[in-house]
Amino acid sequence: MAAATARPPSTAQGSTIFTAPGWVKSFYSKFPLVVLEQDDEVDWKVRAREGEEHAVELWIHPPSPSSRHWTSSSPSSLRTQLLFLLRETSSRVPVSFKSWPNEKSAPGGTLPALHILNQDRLLATDEIRGWLESTYPLKGKGKELQGLPTQATYDRALALSHLILGNLLPAYLASLPSQTSTFHLLFPNAPPLSAGLTTPLPASLTGDSRDIDTDEVIKRGIAVLDAVEVILESASENEPWLFGARHPTSIDALVTSHLYVVYSLPPSSVLRDALISRHSLGGYVNRVLDYAEQRIPK
After folding, report:
1. How far apart (Å, rounded) are the C-alpha atoms in residues 70 and 68?
2. Smallest Cα–Cα separation from 253: which of 160, 172, 149, 171?
3. Cβ-count burial of 281 within 10 angstroms (0-12 exposed, 13-18 middle, 19+ buried)?
4. Which of 216, 245, 222, 250 is nearest to 232 (CA)?
5. Which class does domain 43-137 fall in?
6. pLDDT for 235-284, tens place per residue?
7. Prediction pTM value
8. Which intervals hold domain Metaxin glutathione S-transferase (predicted)?
9. Which residues make up the CATH 1.20.1050 domain(s) of the chain?
């Protein structure tokens, strides 16, 4: 009964005192718990307070050593960078760029991603264009045509975009020194299975390898370079941008981003050699990038 009615010792204020085990005292004697006051702020909070109302930060694939300091080494990231910088609205988009080395940590596991600073909100890749269109809508008569002068030129730009994404992008991917096991997923139209369309064996045994004729893929990419060259050479001297637009448009962002990354391919690349030999394409890429670089917020 004495054990049942025992009470732990108490302080004068009524709080209970327990003696810490010996191993706890020994641990904290060697590694004392120290709590330091925070003397700085999270970086994005500082930039959100000091930046403009709609200031945003675009997370991108890091630039390559041979590229301009702000241009991403990835076609998708560079295209989005140019979409922001080339956008012709009443006010320029207050965007900055942040190299993000761990793509899997981005929303959806892909880059680019958009950090809206004053909302502490992250947008995944497929949400960025919609945010840009709604927050900074185009003005004037050409807004439905993305800044292009006529419906005919808009249709031609749309056809060219299909060529870029359907042929030039796969050619660039096929020209990279190494490809991942999911290389085929980056093609707009997936190549056929190496095992054939029908097989009695399960995919776990046959794998998901694809039968890719890289020479043919690169050949189609070079044909796209020829098409862009013809478009540029058929324009007048007063038309520095594609399809006679008065300023760079989204088609210039798409074409430039997919041309520029080809220059970073190894010197032995057939696609790179084909691009370098077409001097009008190099002049066009530099013209677009110079225009965009002047619009980077200081």
Report:
1. 6
2. 160
3. buried
4. 245
5. alpha beta
6. 877 889 999 999 999 999 999 999 999 999 999 999 999 999 999 999 99
7. 0.77
8. 225-288
9. 143-177+212-297
Q: How confident is the model at residue 68 (pLDDT cuts 50, 70, 90)?
A: confident
292/169 Cα distance (integer angstroms): 22
Band the pLDDT of 54: cuts 50, 70, 90: low
Residues of the chain with CATH 3.40.30.10: 43-137
Residues 125-132: what's their mean pLDDT? Answer: 95
Find out whether the peptide bond into 112 is cis, omega within 30 degrees of 0. Answer: yes
**pLDDT at residue 42, rounded to an integer:** 47
Q: At what angle do helices 250-260 and 279-293 cross, to 10 degrees?
A: 120
Residue found under tokens 């050409």: 142
pLDDT band at 130 (very low <50, low <70, confident <90, very high): very high
Domain 143-177+212-297 fold is Glutathione S-transferase Yfyf (Class Pi); Chain A, domain 2 (1.20.1050)
Calpha distance 43→7 (Å, rounded): 52
Q: What is the mean pLDDT of the chain?
A: 82
Burial classification of residue 161, based on how many CB atoms lie within 10 Å of its CB (0-12 exposed, 13-18 middle, 19 or more buried): middle
Asked whether the CA dihedral 176, 181, 185, 190 is positive or negative, the reply is positive
Which single residue is written with the structure tokens 């084909």? 274
Q: Which residues touch 164 (CB under 8 Å, ≥6 apart)?
A: 224, 254, 255, 258
Identify the band that residue 128 occupies on the pLDDT scale cut at 50, 70 and 90.
Answer: very high
Q: Other CB atoms closer than 10 Å to residue 260's CB: what's the count? A: 24
Q: Which value, in Å, is the radius of gyration of the alpha carbons in the chain?
A: 28
Which stretch of DSSP H or E encloses residue 77? helix 75-85
